[in-house]
Design a protein that fits this description.
The chain has helices spanning 23-33, 46-55, 92-101, 119-128, 145-148, 152-156, 171-174, 213-221, 252-257, 272-279, 300-308, 315-328, 331-337, 340-346, 351-358, and strands at 2-6, 37-39, 57-60, 63-66, 69-79, 83-89, 132-135, 163-164, 185-186, 203-207, 225-231, 242-243, 268-269, 294-297, 363-365, 374-376. By secondary structure, the protein is an alpha/beta fold. It has two domains: 2-234, Metal-dependent hydrolases (TIM Barrel); 299-358, no CATH class. The strands form four sheets. Strands 1, 2, 3, 4, 5, 6, 7, 10, 11 and 14 form a ten-stranded mixed β-sheet that branches. A hairpin with a 2-residue loop joins strand 4 and strand 5 (69-79). Helix 11 (300-308) packs across helix 12 (315-328). The longest helix has 14 residues, at 315-328. The termini are far apart. Bound molecules: zinc ion (ZN) (2 copies). One zinc ion is lined by residues 243, 245-246, 248, 262, 264, 266.
Amino acid sequence: MIVNADLHVHSCFSMASSKDMLIDNIALQAKFKGLQLLGTGDAFHPEWLKIIENSTKYSGDGIYSKNDCDFVLTTEIEGSKRIHHLIIIPTMEIAKEMANNLVSVNKYKDGRPRTKMNGAEIMDLAKDYDCLIGPAHAFTPWTGMYKSYASVYDCYEKKPDFLELGLSADTNMADKIKELQDIPFLSNSDAHSPWPHRLGREFNQINLEDISFSSLKSAIKNNKIKANYGLVPNLGKYHMTGCTKCYQIVDPIIAKENKMKCRCGGTIKKGVDFRISEIATWKKPHHPKNRPPYIHLMPLAEIISMVYDKGVTTKTVQSKWKELINQFENEIEVLINVPLNKISKINEDLTPAIDSFRKKTLYVSPGGGGKYGEISFDEKIQDHTVKKEKIITLDNF
Ligand SMILES: [Zn+2]
Ligand SMILES: [Zn+2]
């Protein structure tokens, strides 16, 4: 069976997470987004585990079900050098045991616990418990594995089960790195709120025998990921090198010359685009035989927000989003499959934008320094690549 799975979200117990990140809300939104399998996130947090136990039905083999939505236990953990790892866990008992034994000062406070263990130690722990493990948002500048290491093997000593691309990267970018050729890629939302432009903004289409931890494990290990769906990478908030205070996009070479200090006094963070160019083996992607396609998305709510020039969480945008979802089942259907003449019967204003999205002619002003990229009709770019002259240098601030 083909299943759409978003395996990295955060509960209401994670720092900077919405109080609405509760099982009922996540399950409802997942349905609208066309997802069948979700990671619970925060599976080392005792309060969150209690909520999962109380608000889902156990379907066996590590799966907790709420209405049409199934959950598998996952957590993100911050190890030494502030690197984030994603762990997929077989059962509640194992999650509890791992959490009890974890040496962490904040494990009861934050859904994403911090530990002093390094990547290799965290991997050994995960393997002892039959979990799956890989770097979360591997290329991002604050907490991605590649910000500290030039090789995944320097971090883990062994091959991880997967690598999570993160919102600012895609398969075309990551397949420039030779050591990743035999590592499966995951694309997950890392959502901190159930809003439709957050939850499921990236997901994996996986061929599963059935919905169970064992099938998921075997699918990830045996190249059964059929497609990665994710943001156009320059929409990601760390795609370009940029200032974390004023969000100016800065030429990475000039940023380096200025010791990563912006004119505004802020700190400049290296973009995922540039980091990948530093560690890349090839200038062009070399896709291995088993690499599934990467299908680029833009959140439908952000497209609606652009057309009506209203904030993405406003009533106008949310009600127009809901109108389409009610008619056509889920967001992926609306974005990719529903014929335009059918969409125009529900909302004529939106049809040109969805047509443009499908033809890849929407303009993206790229994200960087912690600010998401923005969609507009203003200028057309090809293949979503950012032209060099779009980068503002420190000299022409
Ligand atoms: Zn993270
Ligand atoms: Zn600045």
